[in-house]
Amino acid sequence: RYWNYFGPIWDGPYMAVTDFMATVMRVNCLPEGMSCLNPYHLEQVVMRFLYWPTEMPNFAEKISPANWRIENKQGHSWVICEERRKQNPQFPANPSDANFNSFAIAAVDDRYIVRLSFGNFGGLPIGDSIAACNTMRDKVLNSIRWQLSPSLQARKEAVLQQFSNTSISQHREPEPWVYSKWRDGDHKKGEPLYVLVEPGSPVPVFKP
């Protein structure tokens, strides 16, 4: 889905845009013995997903996770968080500073999650733009009605019983991830397009 948000009729064509997509993802990197149906393990899966830009060449630095919260929908935990653009206070406000991603993620099986992605492209004023995008996101999330099949519900209950002493964080601060540093490769020397100069933060390690 694709939504445009309009402000006053005299203030340009629109104030922000949201590109929405729902995806079912298989978590191949999850170690044996761990399950997305365990909220504690699901939290680690989400953090692993949010980590990936730190190791990409010349990727703009992000603030992530931002505004982390957990919502219970029909007995299932949903992780809701944002990935914000890191602003430079030395420069004036820029429309691109209102560009950010929102995610809502829940487990549907031991190794599968459903991810609702909201790619938001805003404008000025930044606060109004972000508020409009998040209002639409919350309307979508409030409309969710779903349930697992009887067999998956039974599997979930078995997992929760097995890991009854674990829980998911109700609040998280943004991670202090250090982004990798890269330079352009010299094709005359046979170098790749980008060459790693300094590695960033290591990949988060799964903890059973």
Account of the protein in words:
- It contains 3 helices and 8 strands.
- The two termini are 37 Å apart.
- The strands form 2 sheets. The protein has a 6-stranded antiparallel β-sheet with strand order 1-2-6-5-4-3, sandwiched between helices.
- It is 21% helix and 32% strand.
- By secondary structure, the protein is α+β, with helices and mostly antiparallel strands.
- It has helices at 39-51, 126-142, 150-162, and strands spanning 2-5, 16-26, 62-73, 76-85, 100-109, 112-121, 181-184, 194-198.
- The radius of gyration is 20 Å and the shape is globular.
Overview in brief:
The chain has 208 residues and is α+β, with helices and mostly antiparallel strands.
- Outline, from the CA principal axes? globular
What is the number of strand segments? Answer: 8
What's the helix-strand series?
EEHEEEEHHEE
Residue stretches low in confidence (pLDDT < 50, at least 5 long) are: none
Strand order of the biggest β-sheet: 1-2-6-5-4-3
Distance between the termini: 37 Å
The proportion of strand residues reads 25-35%
Mean pLDDT across residues: 91
Q: Structural class, from secondary structure content?
A: alpha+beta
